[in-house]
Design a protein that fits this description.
The complex is a heterodimer of chains A (357) and B (236).
Chain A (H helix, E strand, L loop, with lengths): L1 H8 L10 E4 L2 H6 L1 H14 L4 E3 L8 H5 L5 H18 L3 E4 L2 H16 L1 H15 L8 E2 L2 H7 L1 H5 L16 E5 L2 H4 L15 H8 L3 E2 L14 H4 L4 H15 L6 E4 L2 H18 L12 E3 H9 L3 H4 L9 H7 L33
Parallel strand pairs in A: 1-2, 1-3, 3-4, 5-6, 5-7, 7-8
Chain B lengths: L3 H6 L2 H6 L8 H5 L1 H5 L4 H10 L2 H8 L12 H5 L6 H15 L6 H4 L1 H15 L17 H9 L1 H7 L17 H14 L1 H18 L12 H8 L8
Helix pairs in contact in B: 5-8, 10-14, 10-15
Protein backbone atom coordinates (compact mmCIF):
# COMPACT_ATOMS: atom_id res chain seq x y z
CA UNK A 1 0.00 0.00 0.00
CA UNK A 2 2.78 2.40 0.96
CA UNK A 3 4.61 1.41 -2.20
CA UNK A 4 1.50 2.07 -4.28
CA UNK A 5 0.99 5.46 -2.66
CA UNK A 6 4.57 6.36 -3.53
CA UNK A 7 3.94 5.61 -7.20
CA UNK A 8 0.64 7.55 -7.21
CA UNK A 9 2.45 10.61 -5.84
CA UNK A 10 4.42 10.72 -9.10
CA UNK A 11 1.15 11.32 -10.95
CA UNK A 12 0.07 14.35 -8.92
CA UNK A 13 0.49 18.02 -9.83
CA UNK A 14 0.54 21.24 -7.88
CA UNK A 15 -2.78 23.11 -8.03
CA UNK A 16 -2.70 26.61 -6.53
CA UNK A 17 -5.34 27.12 -3.84
CA UNK A 18 -6.41 30.74 -4.52
CA UNK A 19 -5.83 33.97 -6.48
CA UNK A 20 -6.30 32.93 -10.08
CA UNK A 21 -6.10 34.81 -13.40
CA UNK A 22 -8.79 33.39 -15.71
CA UNK A 23 -8.43 33.20 -19.47
CA UNK A 24 -11.60 32.54 -21.44
CA UNK A 25 -11.91 29.99 -24.24
CA UNK A 26 -13.07 30.90 -27.76
CA UNK A 27 -15.08 27.68 -28.08
CA UNK A 28 -16.38 27.48 -24.52
CA UNK A 29 -17.69 31.03 -24.36
CA UNK A 30 -19.31 30.56 -27.77
CA UNK A 31 -20.88 27.14 -27.30
CA UNK A 32 -21.22 26.86 -23.50
CA UNK A 33 -21.14 30.37 -22.02
CA UNK A 34 -22.99 29.11 -18.94
CA UNK A 35 -20.10 26.80 -18.06
CA UNK A 36 -17.59 29.65 -17.80
CA UNK A 37 -20.10 31.68 -15.77
CA UNK A 38 -20.69 28.72 -13.48
CA UNK A 39 -16.98 28.12 -12.94
CA UNK A 40 -16.51 31.72 -11.78
CA UNK A 41 -19.65 31.50 -9.62
CA UNK A 42 -18.51 28.27 -7.95
CA UNK A 43 -15.07 29.66 -7.20
CA UNK A 44 -16.31 33.00 -5.89
CA UNK A 45 -19.57 32.07 -4.19
CA UNK A 46 -19.15 28.45 -3.14
CA UNK A 47 -15.41 28.34 -2.44
CA UNK A 48 -14.70 31.99 -1.59
CA UNK A 49 -11.75 32.27 -3.99
CA UNK A 50 -10.42 35.28 -5.87
CA UNK A 51 -10.37 34.98 -9.66
CA UNK A 52 -9.91 37.76 -12.22
CA UNK A 53 -11.84 37.95 -15.53
CA UNK A 54 -9.87 40.60 -17.43
CA UNK A 55 -11.80 42.21 -20.35
CA UNK A 56 -8.49 42.87 -22.17
CA UNK A 57 -7.81 39.19 -22.76
CA UNK A 58 -8.08 37.59 -26.21
CA UNK A 59 -7.51 34.29 -27.96
CA UNK A 60 -4.29 32.35 -27.29
CA UNK A 61 -4.41 31.51 -31.07
CA UNK A 62 -4.63 27.78 -30.19
CA UNK A 63 -7.08 26.72 -32.89
CA UNK A 64 -5.17 28.75 -35.47
CA UNK A 65 -1.84 27.37 -34.25
CA UNK A 66 -2.94 23.74 -34.46
CA UNK A 67 -4.54 24.32 -37.87
CA UNK A 68 -1.24 25.84 -39.02
CA UNK A 69 -2.30 29.40 -39.88
CA UNK A 70 -0.36 30.85 -36.93
CA UNK A 71 3.42 30.28 -36.58
CA UNK A 72 4.87 29.21 -33.22
CA UNK A 73 6.79 32.48 -32.72
CA UNK A 74 3.49 34.35 -33.02
CA UNK A 75 1.68 32.02 -30.65
CA UNK A 76 4.47 32.29 -28.07
CA UNK A 77 4.31 36.09 -28.20
CA UNK A 78 0.51 36.24 -28.01
CA UNK A 79 0.69 33.96 -24.96
CA UNK A 80 3.33 36.28 -23.51
CA UNK A 81 0.92 39.21 -23.91
CA UNK A 82 -1.70 37.30 -21.95
CA UNK A 83 0.90 36.64 -19.25
CA UNK A 84 1.69 40.36 -19.21
CA UNK A 85 -2.00 41.09 -18.47
CA UNK A 86 -1.70 38.71 -15.51
CA UNK A 87 1.42 40.54 -14.37
CA UNK A 88 -0.40 43.89 -14.63
CA UNK A 89 -3.21 42.49 -12.46
CA UNK A 90 -0.68 41.31 -9.86
CA UNK A 91 -1.48 37.60 -10.16
CA UNK A 92 0.77 34.54 -10.61
CA UNK A 93 -1.63 31.61 -11.06
CA UNK A 94 -2.87 31.25 -14.64
CA UNK A 95 -6.10 29.35 -15.41
CA UNK A 96 -6.90 28.90 -19.13
CA UNK A 97 -10.51 27.80 -19.61
CA UNK A 98 -9.79 25.74 -22.73
CA UNK A 99 -7.88 22.46 -22.91
CA UNK A 100 -6.35 23.53 -26.23
CA UNK A 101 -5.12 26.72 -24.52
CA UNK A 102 -3.86 24.69 -21.57
CA UNK A 103 -1.85 22.55 -24.01
CA UNK A 104 -0.55 25.61 -25.85
CA UNK A 105 0.60 27.32 -22.64
CA UNK A 106 2.30 24.21 -21.31
CA UNK A 107 4.04 23.72 -24.68
CA UNK A 108 5.18 27.34 -24.76
CA UNK A 109 6.52 27.26 -21.20
CA UNK A 110 8.22 23.90 -21.77
CA UNK A 111 9.91 25.35 -24.88
CA UNK A 112 11.12 28.38 -22.91
CA UNK A 113 12.52 26.09 -20.20
CA UNK A 114 14.31 23.80 -22.66
CA UNK A 115 15.48 26.59 -24.98
CA UNK A 116 16.12 29.81 -22.97
CA UNK A 117 17.00 31.63 -26.19
CA UNK A 118 13.35 31.19 -27.29
CA UNK A 119 12.23 32.89 -24.07
CA UNK A 120 14.58 35.79 -24.69
CA UNK A 121 13.39 36.05 -28.31
CA UNK A 122 9.76 36.14 -27.14
CA UNK A 123 10.53 38.83 -24.55
CA UNK A 124 12.11 40.94 -27.28
CA UNK A 125 9.20 40.39 -29.68
CA UNK A 126 6.65 41.41 -27.05
CA UNK A 127 8.67 44.42 -25.92
CA UNK A 128 9.14 45.65 -29.49
CA UNK A 129 5.51 45.06 -30.53
CA UNK A 130 3.76 46.34 -27.41
CA UNK A 131 6.27 47.71 -24.88
CA UNK A 132 5.07 45.04 -22.43
CA UNK A 133 6.93 42.77 -19.99
CA UNK A 134 5.73 39.45 -18.60
CA UNK A 135 6.47 36.81 -15.97
CA UNK A 136 6.07 33.08 -16.44
CA UNK A 137 3.22 31.95 -14.15
CA UNK A 138 4.10 30.23 -10.89
CA UNK A 139 1.26 27.83 -11.44
CA UNK A 140 -0.75 26.96 -14.54
CA UNK A 141 -3.76 24.71 -14.15
CA UNK A 142 -6.94 23.91 -16.01
CA UNK A 143 -10.28 24.84 -14.35
CA UNK A 144 -11.11 21.13 -14.12
CA UNK A 145 -8.01 20.74 -11.91
CA UNK A 146 -9.44 23.29 -9.46
CA UNK A 147 -12.89 21.68 -9.37
CA UNK A 148 -11.14 18.32 -8.84
CA UNK A 149 -9.04 19.77 -6.01
CA UNK A 150 -12.15 21.06 -4.22
CA UNK A 151 -14.47 18.16 -5.14
CA UNK A 152 -15.03 17.17 -1.51
CA UNK A 153 -15.77 20.73 -0.34
CA UNK A 154 -18.28 21.03 -3.18
CA UNK A 155 -19.83 17.65 -2.37
CA UNK A 156 -20.58 18.96 1.11
CA UNK A 157 -22.62 21.79 -0.44
CA UNK A 158 -24.44 19.71 -3.05
CA UNK A 159 -28.19 19.11 -2.95
CA UNK A 160 -28.08 16.06 -5.18
CA UNK A 161 -25.85 13.05 -5.77
CA UNK A 162 -25.16 10.97 -8.85
CA UNK A 163 -27.57 8.30 -7.65
CA UNK A 164 -30.48 6.98 -9.68
CA UNK A 165 -33.56 7.95 -7.67
CA UNK A 166 -35.56 4.98 -8.94
CA UNK A 167 -33.00 2.22 -8.38
CA UNK A 168 -30.82 3.73 -5.65
CA UNK A 169 -27.74 2.73 -7.68
CA UNK A 170 -24.86 5.01 -8.76
CA UNK A 171 -25.31 6.62 -12.15
CA UNK A 172 -22.79 5.52 -14.75
CA UNK A 173 -20.61 8.24 -16.22
CA UNK A 174 -18.19 8.11 -19.15
CA UNK A 175 -15.35 10.54 -18.55
CA UNK A 176 -13.61 11.96 -21.61
CA UNK A 177 -10.42 13.94 -21.11
CA UNK A 178 -9.36 16.38 -23.83
CA UNK A 179 -6.20 15.10 -25.54
CA UNK A 180 -4.19 18.26 -24.90
CA UNK A 181 -4.81 18.05 -21.15
CA UNK A 182 -2.36 15.20 -20.58
CA UNK A 183 -1.07 13.76 -23.84
CA UNK A 184 1.43 16.54 -24.61
CA UNK A 185 3.04 16.75 -21.16
CA UNK A 186 1.73 14.08 -18.82
CA UNK A 187 3.30 15.75 -15.78
CA UNK A 188 0.72 18.55 -16.12
CA UNK A 189 -2.24 16.13 -15.76
CA UNK A 190 -3.66 14.75 -12.51
CA UNK A 191 -2.91 11.06 -12.98
CA UNK A 192 -0.72 11.70 -16.02
CA UNK A 193 -1.61 10.51 -19.52
CA UNK A 194 -2.00 6.93 -18.33
CA UNK A 195 -4.36 7.30 -15.35
CA UNK A 196 -6.09 10.70 -15.69
CA UNK A 197 -8.17 11.15 -12.58
CA UNK A 198 -9.39 14.71 -12.96
CA UNK A 199 -12.94 13.83 -14.09
CA UNK A 200 -13.14 10.31 -12.67
CA UNK A 201 -12.38 11.80 -9.26
CA UNK A 202 -15.37 14.14 -9.53
CA UNK A 203 -17.79 11.40 -10.67
CA UNK A 204 -16.75 9.03 -7.87
CA UNK A 205 -16.74 11.73 -5.19
CA UNK A 206 -20.21 12.89 -6.18
CA UNK A 207 -21.73 9.41 -5.96
CA UNK A 208 -21.43 8.06 -9.49
CA UNK A 209 -19.62 5.15 -11.07
CA UNK A 210 -17.02 5.58 -13.81
CA UNK A 211 -17.43 3.50 -16.96
CA UNK A 212 -14.27 1.91 -18.29
CA UNK A 213 -14.50 0.99 -21.96
CA UNK A 214 -12.01 0.07 -24.70
CA UNK A 215 -11.84 3.45 -26.48
CA UNK A 216 -11.83 5.55 -23.29
CA UNK A 217 -8.67 7.43 -24.27
CA UNK A 218 -9.39 7.80 -27.98
CA UNK A 219 -9.61 11.37 -29.34
CA UNK A 220 -13.12 12.84 -29.83
CA UNK A 221 -12.07 13.59 -33.40
CA UNK A 222 -11.89 17.40 -33.42
CA UNK A 223 -8.64 17.27 -35.37
CA UNK A 224 -8.59 21.08 -35.86
CA UNK A 225 -8.41 21.31 -39.71
CA UNK A 226 -10.28 17.97 -39.81
CA UNK A 227 -13.37 19.76 -38.49
CA UNK A 228 -12.82 23.38 -39.54
CA UNK A 229 -13.03 22.41 -43.23
CA UNK A 230 -16.33 20.84 -44.24
CA UNK A 231 -14.64 18.37 -46.62
CA UNK A 232 -12.73 16.80 -43.73
CA UNK A 233 -15.53 16.28 -41.24
CA UNK A 234 -15.81 12.56 -41.99
CA UNK A 235 -12.61 12.17 -39.93
CA UNK A 236 -14.16 13.96 -37.00
CA UNK A 237 -17.49 12.11 -36.90
CA UNK A 238 -15.79 8.74 -37.49
CA UNK A 239 -13.70 9.17 -34.34
CA UNK A 240 -16.68 10.12 -32.17
CA UNK A 241 -18.63 7.17 -33.59
CA UNK A 242 -15.80 4.84 -32.68
CA UNK A 243 -16.02 6.01 -29.06
CA UNK A 244 -19.82 5.73 -28.81
CA UNK A 245 -19.82 2.29 -30.49
CA UNK A 246 -17.32 1.22 -27.86
CA UNK A 247 -19.13 2.67 -24.82
CA UNK A 248 -22.70 1.70 -25.81
CA UNK A 249 -22.64 -1.77 -24.24
CA UNK A 250 -21.95 -0.25 -20.82
CA UNK A 251 -25.16 1.86 -20.95
CA UNK A 252 -23.74 5.11 -19.60
CA UNK A 253 -26.19 7.65 -18.16
CA UNK A 254 -24.03 10.62 -19.17
CA UNK A 255 -20.70 11.69 -20.64
CA UNK A 256 -18.52 14.15 -18.74
CA UNK A 257 -15.79 16.14 -20.51
CA UNK A 258 -13.21 18.80 -19.63
CA UNK A 259 -12.51 20.11 -23.15
CA UNK A 260 -14.84 22.49 -25.00
CA UNK A 261 -14.28 20.81 -28.35
CA UNK A 262 -14.95 17.35 -26.96
CA UNK A 263 -18.18 18.48 -25.29
CA UNK A 264 -19.46 19.99 -28.50
CA UNK A 265 -18.39 17.19 -30.84
CA UNK A 266 -19.62 14.32 -28.67
CA UNK A 267 -22.94 16.17 -28.47
CA UNK A 268 -23.32 17.26 -32.11
CA UNK A 269 -21.95 14.14 -33.73
CA UNK A 270 -24.55 12.03 -31.88
CA UNK A 271 -27.16 14.18 -33.63
CA UNK A 272 -25.40 13.78 -36.99
CA UNK A 273 -25.04 10.01 -36.59
CA UNK A 274 -28.73 9.76 -35.65
CA UNK A 275 -29.86 11.78 -38.68
CA UNK A 276 -27.50 10.10 -41.17
CA UNK A 277 -27.54 6.51 -39.94
CA UNK A 278 -30.57 6.30 -37.66
CA UNK A 279 -28.27 5.23 -34.82
CA UNK A 280 -28.68 6.47 -31.26
CA UNK A 281 -26.76 5.16 -28.26
CA UNK A 282 -29.50 5.00 -25.62
CA UNK A 283 -32.77 3.06 -25.44
CA UNK A 284 -35.03 6.13 -25.84
CA UNK A 285 -33.46 7.39 -29.10
CA UNK A 286 -32.56 10.66 -27.37
CA UNK A 287 -28.80 10.14 -27.21
CA UNK A 288 -26.51 10.24 -24.19
CA UNK A 289 -26.28 13.70 -22.54
CA UNK A 290 -22.76 15.21 -22.71
CA UNK A 291 -21.95 17.65 -19.91
CA UNK A 292 -19.12 19.92 -18.92
CA UNK A 293 -17.79 19.44 -15.37
CA UNK A 294 -19.20 22.86 -14.38
CA UNK A 295 -22.64 21.92 -15.68
CA UNK A 296 -22.53 18.72 -13.63
CA UNK A 297 -21.27 20.49 -10.50
CA UNK A 298 -23.87 23.25 -10.97
CA UNK A 299 -26.72 20.74 -11.34
CA UNK A 300 -25.71 18.90 -8.17
CA UNK A 301 -25.37 22.21 -6.32
CA UNK A 302 -28.98 22.95 -7.26
CA UNK A 303 -28.50 25.62 -9.94
CA UNK A 304 -31.24 26.09 -12.55
CA UNK A 305 -30.36 23.78 -15.51
CA UNK A 306 -31.54 26.43 -17.98
CA UNK A 307 -29.26 29.10 -16.44
CA UNK A 308 -26.41 26.59 -16.81
CA UNK A 309 -27.25 26.35 -20.52
CA UNK A 310 -28.20 22.70 -20.88
CA UNK A 311 -30.78 23.70 -23.51
CA UNK A 312 -27.89 24.72 -25.81
CA UNK A 313 -26.88 21.07 -26.17
CA UNK A 314 -28.43 19.17 -29.07
CA UNK A 315 -28.77 16.06 -26.89
CA UNK A 316 -31.35 17.05 -24.29
CA UNK A 317 -30.64 16.38 -20.64
CA UNK A 318 -34.08 15.76 -19.05
CA UNK A 319 -33.48 12.00 -18.84
CA UNK A 320 -30.47 12.64 -16.61
CA UNK A 321 -32.20 15.35 -14.55
CA UNK A 322 -35.06 12.95 -13.81
CA UNK A 323 -32.71 10.14 -12.82
CA UNK A 324 -30.92 12.44 -10.36
CA UNK A 325 -34.25 13.84 -9.12
CA UNK A 326 -33.59 17.44 -10.11
CA UNK A 327 -36.69 19.65 -10.29
CA UNK A 328 -36.92 21.98 -13.27
CA UNK A 329 -39.45 24.20 -14.99
CA UNK A 330 -40.00 23.04 -18.63
CA UNK A 331 -41.53 26.44 -19.51
CA UNK A 332 -38.34 28.24 -18.48
CA UNK A 333 -36.20 26.27 -20.91
CA UNK A 334 -36.72 28.45 -23.97
CA UNK A 335 -36.77 31.84 -22.25
CA UNK A 336 -34.07 34.47 -22.84
CA UNK A 337 -32.38 37.07 -20.65
CA UNK A 338 -35.29 39.51 -21.06
CA UNK A 339 -37.80 36.91 -19.90
CA UNK A 340 -39.18 36.54 -23.43
CA UNK A 341 -40.16 33.12 -24.81
CA UNK A 342 -37.87 32.63 -27.80
CA UNK A 343 -39.75 29.82 -29.51
CA UNK A 344 -38.44 26.28 -29.64
CA UNK A 345 -35.70 24.93 -31.89
CA UNK A 346 -36.86 22.82 -34.83
CA UNK A 347 -37.09 19.09 -34.17
CA UNK A 348 -34.56 16.75 -35.78
CA UNK A 349 -36.04 14.07 -38.02
CA UNK A 350 -34.75 11.05 -36.12
CA UNK A 351 -33.18 12.13 -32.85
CA UNK A 352 -35.89 12.55 -30.20
CA UNK A 353 -35.65 15.76 -28.17
CA UNK A 354 -38.93 15.77 -26.20
CA UNK A 355 -38.63 13.76 -23.04
CA UNK A 356 -41.56 11.50 -22.14
CA UNK A 357 -41.13 9.46 -19.01
CA UNK B 1 19.35 23.69 -54.51
CA UNK B 2 17.40 24.46 -51.34
CA UNK B 3 18.22 22.10 -48.48
CA UNK B 4 14.80 21.40 -46.97
CA UNK B 5 16.16 19.55 -43.94
CA UNK B 6 18.16 22.61 -42.91
CA UNK B 7 15.03 24.75 -43.28
CA UNK B 8 13.09 22.34 -41.06
CA UNK B 9 15.84 22.55 -38.45
CA UNK B 10 15.30 26.30 -38.15
CA UNK B 11 12.01 25.67 -36.33
CA UNK B 12 12.62 24.86 -32.67
CA UNK B 13 9.73 22.40 -32.70
CA UNK B 14 11.62 20.20 -35.15
CA UNK B 15 14.39 19.81 -32.56
CA UNK B 16 11.78 19.15 -29.87
CA UNK B 17 9.81 16.75 -32.01
CA UNK B 18 12.34 14.42 -33.62
CA UNK B 19 15.42 12.80 -32.14
CA UNK B 20 16.71 9.40 -33.27
CA UNK B 21 13.37 7.85 -34.24
CA UNK B 22 13.80 4.06 -34.20
CA UNK B 23 10.79 3.47 -36.44
CA UNK B 24 8.94 1.26 -33.97
CA UNK B 25 5.57 2.43 -35.34
CA UNK B 26 3.84 3.05 -32.00
CA UNK B 27 2.84 6.50 -33.27
CA UNK B 28 1.05 4.93 -36.24
CA UNK B 29 -0.62 2.34 -34.03
CA UNK B 30 -2.16 4.98 -31.75
CA UNK B 31 -2.88 7.60 -34.45
CA UNK B 32 -6.59 8.37 -35.15
CA UNK B 33 -5.62 9.81 -38.56
CA UNK B 34 -3.75 6.63 -39.54
CA UNK B 35 -6.93 4.68 -38.90
CA UNK B 36 -9.00 6.94 -41.15
CA UNK B 37 -6.66 8.19 -43.88
CA UNK B 38 -3.86 6.66 -45.98
CA UNK B 39 -1.48 8.01 -43.42
CA UNK B 40 1.57 6.71 -41.57
CA UNK B 41 3.42 9.10 -39.22
CA UNK B 42 6.18 6.51 -38.75
CA UNK B 43 6.91 6.70 -42.47
CA UNK B 44 6.97 10.51 -42.40
CA UNK B 45 9.53 10.53 -39.57
CA UNK B 46 11.55 7.98 -41.49
CA UNK B 47 11.60 10.06 -44.68
CA UNK B 48 12.57 13.23 -42.82
CA UNK B 49 15.36 11.42 -40.96
CA UNK B 50 16.92 10.23 -44.24
CA UNK B 51 17.41 13.91 -45.16
CA UNK B 52 16.66 12.93 -48.76
CA UNK B 53 15.92 16.31 -50.33
CA UNK B 54 13.73 14.99 -53.16
CA UNK B 55 11.63 12.87 -50.82
CA UNK B 56 11.17 15.77 -48.41
CA UNK B 57 10.06 17.98 -51.31
CA UNK B 58 7.55 15.30 -52.31
CA UNK B 59 6.25 15.34 -48.73
CA UNK B 60 5.91 19.11 -48.74
CA UNK B 61 3.77 18.87 -51.89
CA UNK B 62 1.80 15.84 -50.73
CA UNK B 63 -1.66 15.24 -49.30
CA UNK B 64 -0.07 13.19 -46.52
CA UNK B 65 1.16 15.97 -44.25
CA UNK B 66 -2.35 17.43 -44.02
CA UNK B 67 -4.00 14.29 -42.59
CA UNK B 68 -2.76 14.69 -38.98
CA UNK B 69 -5.40 15.90 -36.48
CA UNK B 70 -2.83 17.28 -33.99
CA UNK B 71 -4.31 15.25 -31.10
CA UNK B 72 -0.73 14.59 -29.91
CA UNK B 73 -1.46 10.97 -28.98
CA UNK B 74 1.87 10.15 -30.68
CA UNK B 75 3.71 12.37 -28.18
CA UNK B 76 2.18 10.49 -25.25
CA UNK B 77 3.16 7.08 -26.60
CA UNK B 78 6.56 7.52 -28.32
CA UNK B 79 9.20 5.58 -26.32
CA UNK B 80 11.82 8.12 -27.43
CA UNK B 81 9.75 11.13 -26.37
CA UNK B 82 9.38 12.31 -29.96
CA UNK B 83 6.32 14.12 -31.30
CA UNK B 84 5.56 13.28 -34.95
CA UNK B 85 2.66 15.77 -34.78
CA UNK B 86 5.19 18.56 -34.17
CA UNK B 87 7.27 17.36 -37.15
CA UNK B 88 4.07 17.50 -39.24
CA UNK B 89 3.39 21.03 -38.05
CA UNK B 90 6.88 22.14 -39.11
CA UNK B 91 6.48 20.45 -42.51
CA UNK B 92 3.16 22.28 -42.98
CA UNK B 93 4.74 25.60 -42.08
CA UNK B 94 7.53 25.09 -44.63
CA UNK B 95 5.04 23.92 -47.26
CA UNK B 96 3.17 27.20 -46.85
CA UNK B 97 6.34 29.31 -46.88
CA UNK B 98 7.47 27.73 -50.16
CA UNK B 99 4.02 27.69 -51.76
CA UNK B 100 3.99 23.87 -52.09
CA UNK B 101 0.68 23.58 -50.21
CA UNK B 102 -1.33 24.54 -53.29
CA UNK B 103 -0.10 21.35 -55.01
CA UNK B 104 -2.44 19.19 -52.91
CA UNK B 105 -6.21 19.20 -52.36
CA UNK B 106 -5.82 19.05 -48.57
CA UNK B 107 -3.06 21.66 -48.59
CA UNK B 108 -5.21 24.15 -50.53
CA UNK B 109 -7.68 24.05 -47.63
CA UNK B 110 -5.30 26.32 -45.71
CA UNK B 111 -6.92 29.17 -47.61
CA UNK B 112 -10.33 28.33 -46.11
CA UNK B 113 -8.83 28.14 -42.62
CA UNK B 114 -6.91 31.41 -43.04
CA UNK B 115 -10.02 33.21 -44.28
CA UNK B 116 -12.01 31.98 -41.27
CA UNK B 117 -9.95 31.31 -38.12
CA UNK B 118 -6.90 33.32 -39.23
CA UNK B 119 -8.90 36.43 -40.09
CA UNK B 120 -11.14 36.08 -37.01
CA UNK B 121 -8.10 36.38 -34.72
CA UNK B 122 -7.04 39.70 -36.22
CA UNK B 123 -10.53 41.16 -36.71
CA UNK B 124 -12.28 40.23 -33.45
CA UNK B 125 -9.63 38.60 -31.21
CA UNK B 126 -11.30 35.19 -31.19
CA UNK B 127 -10.45 32.08 -33.23
CA UNK B 128 -14.14 31.23 -33.18
CA UNK B 129 -17.18 33.25 -32.07
CA UNK B 130 -20.90 32.43 -32.17
CA UNK B 131 -21.41 34.88 -35.04
CA UNK B 132 -18.77 33.12 -37.18
CA UNK B 133 -20.38 29.65 -37.05
CA UNK B 134 -23.08 30.10 -39.69
CA UNK B 135 -25.56 27.18 -39.60
CA UNK B 136 -25.60 27.17 -43.42
CA UNK B 137 -21.92 26.17 -43.44
CA UNK B 138 -22.34 23.97 -40.34
CA UNK B 139 -25.36 21.70 -40.87
CA UNK B 140 -23.85 19.21 -38.40
CA UNK B 141 -24.46 21.71 -35.59
CA UNK B 142 -28.17 20.91 -35.72
CA UNK B 143 -31.38 22.85 -35.04
CA UNK B 144 -30.47 23.85 -31.48
CA UNK B 145 -27.41 25.70 -32.79
CA UNK B 146 -29.56 27.49 -35.40
CA UNK B 147 -31.95 28.57 -32.62
CA UNK B 148 -29.05 29.78 -30.48
CA UNK B 149 -27.38 31.53 -33.46
CA UNK B 150 -30.62 33.43 -34.12
CA UNK B 151 -31.12 34.33 -30.42
CA UNK B 152 -27.49 34.66 -29.34
CA UNK B 153 -27.75 37.80 -27.21
CA UNK B 154 -30.86 36.64 -25.31
CA UNK B 155 -29.43 33.20 -24.63
CA UNK B 156 -25.75 33.95 -24.04
CA UNK B 157 -26.60 36.82 -21.70
CA UNK B 158 -29.08 34.68 -19.77
CA UNK B 159 -26.13 32.37 -19.13
CA UNK B 160 -24.01 35.23 -17.80
CA UNK B 161 -22.52 36.33 -21.12
CA UNK B 162 -21.82 39.85 -22.33
CA UNK B 163 -22.61 39.30 -26.00
CA UNK B 164 -21.01 41.90 -28.29
CA UNK B 165 -20.75 44.52 -25.54
CA UNK B 166 -17.72 46.06 -23.83
CA UNK B 167 -16.54 44.90 -20.41
CA UNK B 168 -15.74 41.46 -19.03
CA UNK B 169 -17.66 38.29 -19.76
CA UNK B 170 -18.25 35.68 -22.43
CA UNK B 171 -18.51 36.88 -26.04
CA UNK B 172 -17.66 40.49 -25.13
CA UNK B 173 -16.20 42.90 -27.70
CA UNK B 174 -12.41 42.83 -27.40
CA UNK B 175 -11.19 46.43 -27.32
CA UNK B 176 -9.34 47.96 -30.27
CA UNK B 177 -6.19 48.66 -28.22
CA UNK B 178 -5.88 44.96 -27.46
CA UNK B 179 -6.50 43.99 -31.06
CA UNK B 180 -3.92 46.52 -32.26
CA UNK B 181 -1.27 44.92 -30.02
CA UNK B 182 -2.18 41.44 -31.28
CA UNK B 183 -1.88 42.68 -34.88
CA UNK B 184 1.54 44.19 -34.16
CA UNK B 185 2.66 40.86 -32.70
CA UNK B 186 1.52 39.12 -35.90
CA UNK B 187 3.42 41.61 -38.05
CA UNK B 188 6.64 41.27 -36.07
CA UNK B 189 6.68 37.50 -35.54
CA UNK B 190 5.81 36.16 -38.99
CA UNK B 191 2.08 35.62 -38.51
CA UNK B 192 1.10 38.27 -41.04
CA UNK B 193 3.73 37.02 -43.51
CA UNK B 194 2.29 33.49 -43.28
CA UNK B 195 -1.19 34.87 -43.97
CA UNK B 196 0.16 36.83 -46.94
CA UNK B 197 1.86 33.69 -48.32
CA UNK B 198 -1.39 31.73 -48.07
CA UNK B 199 -3.25 34.56 -49.84
CA UNK B 200 -0.67 35.05 -52.61
CA UNK B 201 -0.16 31.39 -53.51
CA UNK B 202 -3.91 30.71 -53.31
CA UNK B 203 -4.64 33.60 -55.69
CA UNK B 204 -2.08 32.15 -58.12
CA UNK B 205 -3.82 28.78 -57.95
CA UNK B 206 -7.24 30.39 -58.39
CA UNK B 207 -5.96 32.17 -61.51
CA UNK B 208 -4.50 28.96 -62.93
CA UNK B 209 -7.79 27.14 -62.42
CA UNK B 210 -10.05 30.02 -63.57
CA UNK B 211 -11.72 30.13 -60.16
CA UNK B 212 -12.96 33.48 -58.90
CA UNK B 213 -11.48 34.78 -55.68
CA UNK B 214 -12.07 38.00 -53.73
CA UNK B 215 -9.56 39.94 -51.67
CA UNK B 216 -11.52 39.37 -48.48
CA UNK B 217 -14.15 37.14 -46.94
CA UNK B 218 -15.66 33.77 -47.69
CA UNK B 219 -18.23 34.65 -50.33
CA UNK B 220 -16.18 33.56 -53.32
CA UNK B 221 -15.81 30.50 -55.49
CA UNK B 222 -12.26 29.61 -54.42
CA UNK B 223 -13.15 29.69 -50.72
CA UNK B 224 -16.12 27.38 -51.23
CA UNK B 225 -13.99 25.11 -53.41
CA UNK B 226 -11.33 24.72 -50.71
CA UNK B 227 -13.95 24.38 -47.97
CA UNK B 228 -16.07 21.73 -49.69
CA UNK B 229 -13.97 19.90 -52.33
CA UNK B 230 -13.45 16.25 -51.47
CA UNK B 231 -12.12 13.87 -54.12
CA UNK B 232 -12.70 10.98 -51.71
CA UNK B 233 -9.26 9.61 -52.54
CA UNK B 234 -7.83 10.04 -49.08
CA UNK B 235 -9.40 7.34 -46.96
CA UNK B 236 -8.18 3.83 -46.44
Amino acid sequence: MTKNKHYWNQYQKEIADDNYFYERSCIRQSFFPGSETTFLKILREELGKTIIDDPNQHTCTGIGYHSDVVPFDTTMTVCARLFSLMKDAGFKNYVPSCVTSFGVFTEVIETWQNFPEELEKTRNFLRKATGREFDIPNNIVHPSDIIYKYRTELKNKMKYQLINQETGKPLKGVEHIGCHYGKIFSKHAVGGAEFPQVLAGMIEEWGGEVVDYPERRHCCGFGFRQYLVMANRGYSVANTKKKFDSMQAYKPDFVLTNCPGCTMFMDRWQYTIAEMEGITYDDKKMGIPVLTYEELAGLLLGYNPWDLGLQLHQIQSESLLNKIGIKYDPKDKFVGKSGTFLGEPNKPEKLIVDYEK
Amino acid sequence: MTNYYNLLLQDIRFKEGLSACMNCGVCTAICPAAEFYKYDPRQICNIVQTRDNEKIEDLLKSETIWYCGQCMSCKARCPRGNAPALVISVLRKLSQELGFFIESEKGRQQFAIKRSVGDNILKIGYCVHVDTVDPKLHPEQGPVWKWYFENAEELADRMGGNYNKYGPGALRIIGEKNLEEVRKIFELTGGSQLHQNIENFSKEKAKLTNTSIENEGINNEYYLHTYIENSNKHQK
